[in-house]
Amino acid sequence: MAHNVRKAVFPVAGLGTRLLPASKAIPKEMATVVDRPVIQYAIEEARSAGIEEFIFVTCRGKASIEDHFDVDVALEAELRSKGKDDALEDVASTELPTGSFTCIRQGRPLGLGHAVWCAKALVGNEPFAVVLPDDVFLSDKPVLQQMTEAYDRVGGNMLAVVEVPREKTNKYGILDIGDDDGTIATVKGMVEKPNPADAPSTLSVVGRYILQPEVMTALDDQEPGKGGEIQLTDAIARAIGHQKVVGFRYEGERFDCGDKAGFVMANLAFGLRNKDVGPSLKKMIAQLSR
Ligand code: G1P
Q: Which of 57, 159, 171, 255 to mutate to test the pocket of ligand 1 (most atoms within 8 A of CB)?
């Protein structure tokens, strides 16, 4: 029986160069998709999956992320006194319970593996999720919840995966797989951002992981890999052969909100499903496409 996943690590120390100039003075994680910042989608997904402890790996200039999930006593008092109950409810829904979230700094941008390793002491000796907030999913059941449910049956190290066009393998961690039941695929090897010609498949890792604490131990002495950065992919690959590593094909649609096109598409997709914005957005899109 797999151990429950109670903790999630959210690496939020990236520079957001692909979203410039929007991300010059505000963190890319605070860019708004319809009515809430990108990072809030990740937190809501993690809460649905039963995560109780939220660990942000952050850096200089990202304080607004912490503020967003903190209690704002003055704002709440103001909204309450004005009888703005709906707004009050929206604000309350952003609060993480006191004591449930911590922030730790990465310091230097040495790679995703290094960012995750920064949370080692906070994670301790238990399985943990890694949630990359750039990846926002539209799905009936939150993707991390799909994964924790599968993990309860399967255990091991589990990575959310999706097929990508071959010309895009150099943007992702790519898997070499063995047994595959259509949902869970056994991982025989994995490589970070291979050129299309060298990619072992087109099955790519996207930003949700459930990992065993041994991956943190591997990160202790992980050498820099692709791009001179310490790669999470390389540390997970070292578990292959002595620990189970599986790819999990989720149900849902992924938007890369760290990229301008993905960000705009996420706004449209979530906007169309939003009860306040959807109807007029639909009308406007119909007009524009005439
Ligand atoms: C990271 C990982 C990569 C993974 C991707 C998913 O890359 O290193 O293996 O496929 O996230 O979004 P990044 O997008 O941070 O360069």
A: 171
Provide the whole-model pTM.
0.96
pLDDT in tens, 176-195: 999 999 999 999 999 999 99
DSSP for residue 3: P
Query: Which CATH number covers residue 53?
Result: 3.90.550.10
| Contact assessment for residue 51 and residue 129, using Cβ atoms and an 8 Å cutoff | yes
Ligand 1 pocket, CB under 6 A: 112, 132, 135, 172-173, 192, 204-207, 231-233
Question: Going along the chain, which residue ranges are E strands?
Answer: 7-11, 32-33, 36-37, 53-58, 101-105, 128-131, 135-138, 157-163, 173-180, 184-192, 203-211, 245-249, 253-256
CA–centroid distance, 74 to ligand 1, in Å, is 39
- Are 235 and 243 in contact by the 8 Å Cβ rule? The answer is no
Domain membership of residue 25 as a residue range: 7-278
Residue 252 CA from chain centroid, whole number = 14
**CA 53 to each of CA 4, 8, 102, 146, 234: distance values in angstroms, whole numbers, following the listed order:** 12, 6, 8, 19, 26
Residue pLDDT, tens place only, 191-207: 999 999 999 999 999 99
Q: Report whether pLDDT(2) > 80.
A: no
* Cα 290 to ligand 1 centroid, rounded to whole Å: 37
Report the atom number in ligand 1 closest to the C-alpha of 258: 14
- Would you say residue 217 lies in a domain? yes
| Domain tally, the chain | 1
